[in-house]
Amino acid sequence: MEDLKLLLNELKSKNFFEADELCVIGCSTSEVIGERIGSVGSMDVAQEIFEALKEIENDTNVAFVFQGCEHINRAITIERSKFDPLTMEEVSVIPDVHAGGSLATYAYQHMQDPMVVEHITVPKGIDIGQTLIGMHITHVAIPERTSVKQIGEAVVTIASSRPKKIGGERAKYN
Fold first, then answer.
1. What is the rounded average pLDDT for all residues in the chain?
2. SUPFAM superfamilies from the xrefs (predicted)?
3. Please, which pLDDT band fits residue 99 given cuts at 50, 70 and 90?
4. How many domains, the chain?
5. Helix (H, G, I), strand (E, B), or coil: what is residue 55?
6. Residue 170 included in any domain
7. Residue 168 placed within a domain
8. What domain range is 88 assigned to?
9. Do the Cβ atoms of 77 and 98 come closer than 8 Å?
10. 24-57: per-residue pLDDT in tens?
11. Of 120, 93, 89, 88, which Cα lies nearest the Cα of 104?
């Protein structure tokens, strides 16, 4: 999965990953292998992606969280140590290949102490296969351009965020 490693190294060189910051990963392994999202899934592809992300996590101390598929309302698999009860609500579900997606399932099986939360707001994310991670990105989301446009056959979109700009020269008031 050379394109993924190239993407992650490019983002690392741009200081995209910050220590102790959460970064949401949405991934359709079906799209990566050239199939329609949610159709086949691949735990082998999920393993490759998870392991590449784990290397970046170890190098940068960023904390990856994993968005599940629409069948679990795009809930987030997260390490319990990163859970914030003031901003997150735990839900009772275990991601499965057919209800959660392969990557969220693989992550749940290989994290130290995983849990699932209904919703999260994080400053950055990587969307592999148009999984719609935007619902979990802090306002205002902005695209990050990279040389890598696809992982396998899946379109990849990178998002970061900035604080809202309120007022200014172009603002209008009553």
1. 94
2. TTHA0583/YokD-like
3. confident
4. 1
5. helix
6. no
7. no
8. 2-161
9. no
10. 999 999 999 998 988 888 999 999 999 999 999 9
11. 93
